[in-house]
Amino acid sequence: xxxxxxxxxxxxxxxxxxxxxxxxQELAAEGAKVAISxxxxxxxxxxxxxxxxxxxxxxxxxxxxLTSESDVKKLIDDVENDLGGIHVLVNSSAGPPTKPFEExxxxxxxxxLDIKFMAQMRPSREAMPRMKKRxxxxxxxxxGSHGRFPHAYAITAGVVNAALLNLTKAMAEEGAPHNxxxxxxNPGLTDTERVTYLANIKAENQGITYDEAVAEMCExxxxxxxxxxxxxxxxxxxxxxPRGGFITGSMIDVDGGMTPCI
Length: 262
Fold this sequence. Notes:
Layout: E1 9-12, H1 18-29, E2 33-38, H2 41-55, E3 59-63, H3 69-83, E4 88-91, H4 106-134, E5 137-142, H5 155-175, E6 180-187, H6 193-206, H7 210-218, H8 229-240, E7 251-254
Parallel strand pairs: 1-2, 1-4, 2-3, 4-5, 5-6, 6-7
Helix pairs in contact: 1-2, 1-8, 3-4, 4-5, 6-7
């Protein structure tokens, strides 16, 4: 199926591994001109090489820090100067570290907001006015289920994700008159380093093994397994494409049936 993304410029942040890399790969497979960003130049190059091996498409890489306002502005400027106007922005920043609630300091909370909320807000703030001028654009925020379904073992993620869901809805309202569509994907448990980290935290807090922690986490969904990152990426491709042209302000759960019908 042709998704209508051939030649479109797509930027995926924090895309050196995990869900971000999978999304970049699927966009490249659809013929998009893909740019990826991340902090580590070596891991970015490895990701770009893997994507080219799988798709035959070159990927532009930009080493930068999403917690730096100046880095983010330069990233958007550089991608548009190098590849053309950004049609698709996928915000795929990392989740924040966590601790038991009483151990979280003010600095921990500020860091959590900077690592994920600000890291998704900043690229959107830079890209959205440019998209509005061109009367077309797609912004996709990769958030997570903890924004709607909090757990103690991921308390910082839950709070930050809830803020991002709110931001997504507001941005969608502002972008709609200019055909700039803004949506969120809430991945469920996905086979990434982030889930490994959370499962280890849960295991430590409860005095159980890692495998037991993963099994307990998967009990909340009907498929009882971790997602492959490519399963999340498929939804991002739909939202990025003209076939998703009537979807905006949506918070789409790709979570193996974890979300209850309410």
